[in-house]
Amino acid sequence: MLQRFSTIRFKLIFSFLLIAFLSGVIGFFTINSTQDISNQLNAENLEISDSKQRILIVQKNIARIKLVSIGLTVGAVIFILITGLLISYWISRKITNFANIVQKLSLGNLGENLDVDSNDELGKLQDALNTIIDRLSQTYKYLGSKLRVKNLELEVRLEELERVNKSLSTSKKSMQDVLRQVEESNALLSIEKAKDDAILNNIGEGLIVADTNLRVIVLNRAGELMLGMKREEAVGKLVYEVYGLCDESGNIIEAKNRPLYKVLQTKQIVATSDFFMMRKDGVSFPILSTNSPILINEKIAGVISVFKDFSKEKQVDRMKTEFISLASHQLRTPLSGISWFTDMLIHGDAGAVNNEQLEFLQNIKKSTDRMVELVGFLLNISRIESGHITIELEPTDVKKMIEDVTADIQVSIKQKGQSLIINTDSKLPLVNLDQKLIRQVLMNFLTNSIKYTPKGGEINLTAYGQNNQLIVKVSDTGYGIPKAEQSKIFQKFYRGVNIVKIETHGTGLGLYLVKLIIEATGGKTGFESEENKGTTFWFSLPMTGMKSGEKEVALDTPSN
Amino acid sequence: MIKIIVAEDDDVLGIAYKAKLSRAGFDLRLVGDGDEAIKTLAEFIPDIILLDLIMPIKDGFTALKEIKENSLWKDIPIIVASNLGQPEDIDRAMKLGAADYIIKSDFAFESLIEKINSVVSQHNVN
What we know:
The complex is a heterodimer of chains A (about 550) and B (about 130). Chain A has about 550 residues and is α+β, with helices and mostly antiparallel strands. Chain A has 14 helices and 13 strands.
């Protein structure tokens, strides 16, 4: 109920009721008085004497009315003014206060609360506003603290970012450095590559580089010309797809026998001189090739084949062999003429000759014989060197062969008063060998021993088997080979300094031929010697038989 | 008297053959080519033929083959006398039917008569 009284509504209503009441009172009074007057005036039985009294009462009433009216009117006006002023002041104060706070609020100042001094509507409004202010305040505080936290976080993040930025900056700088270095390297590499390309494309030999799967990586200009295809066609393809290989008889070399394949397997250099390259377009020609592994840290990273068209060389080689063959044959004919006529003269076919004539003729014969021997050597050597020698194996009774050969030299041995002791192991089985060639070897060893051993010397020939090898040794008690010369003794045309003066004739080819023959047939040869004591020459051949029919024979190389 | 045809294109060697064989009492026909040897065979059947291999018009191998394929001449023993001396040459000659093979430059000329006689008698035995 008190609440009811405190509301503004009530106050206002009360005030206006009061005013209305007062107005009512004034009106009532006025009405009353006027009624009174009217009553006085309206009396029916009016007597003139009474009339003056009644007029006095009326005048008194009118004066009373006038006074009260004035008084009430003034009072009412004052009262209304005061009430009005009070009310308006009170309301406007409240509202102004309110407005201030709200204005402050609008400016963001949440500090002041409204004084809640009444429970009326304004009071409620004040309450609500206070609540709002409180809430806002809290919210702001909350937001403020949140903001601070966030700010702190952001500051931390910012610091981090700055750090990251700094390090990125540094990284960027170093990357730029690296980039610059890479560019410089690139430039150098380009130059190197250009150089390499220039070299590769200007060499006369064809060059193929392939990876470990035997796919072509590089093909140089010369290779393009030889293969008859551009590098774009070849790169990426298997080597087998790019060209084929066959041997002299036309048999195709299978993949697993291809040189590059062997290089991959063995990591060794493989050289070939007898293969023919078969191009995709059907053309084929002989090639000389060197195939090598590309080793990086001992691991195979690829293979290289360098090859050249060998047709010219082969042709030259053929021509050379034919020439030597022809020349030797041509030389032999006049040599035969000299030899035969000398024979006939010596034999007395044209009449008796005196001793001196005989001696001269014999000297002619000797020289001719040497020439014949030399021509024979040259012929053999040229044939072996060009790989044309055919090695014909026969199961041979070594003992018998030795007997045959030594029979031929008995004369020379007797002439020098030397002795020849032969020791052949009777348990030796038949050995597969080329009799013609091995006879030459034996003959050479024996004639050397006879030549380079003084009169009365001793020559020993032994033949036996050991570790599945046939070993034949010829020892003498001759002049020996000085240490300084021992490394050159198998060289073409080499003759030991110590014997050149003693024995002026000798082609220097015998041992060279021996070496060629033995090595071409899978054997070994060597010697031991001491100056003025003697020399032992030996050769060994595999019991299982010499290498037969091999066409790949070592060319003239500076010997051991 | 042993009849012999010698085919040899070198004139010097021809003279040597003549000197040796005529002196030894052989009935010698000396020709300079395989071609001529065949022609001579048409009217002169020898006891033995000495055949060179390298000759200008018809070489020894061809002549040898022809002679051995001819029914009239196939039994005549033939000694190939050449300066070709490689195994394949000897092999080829022997396969074509030669009775013997001598390398002229290696051959001691004085044993020529002996060689001829031995081949002829060997042949007569067969």
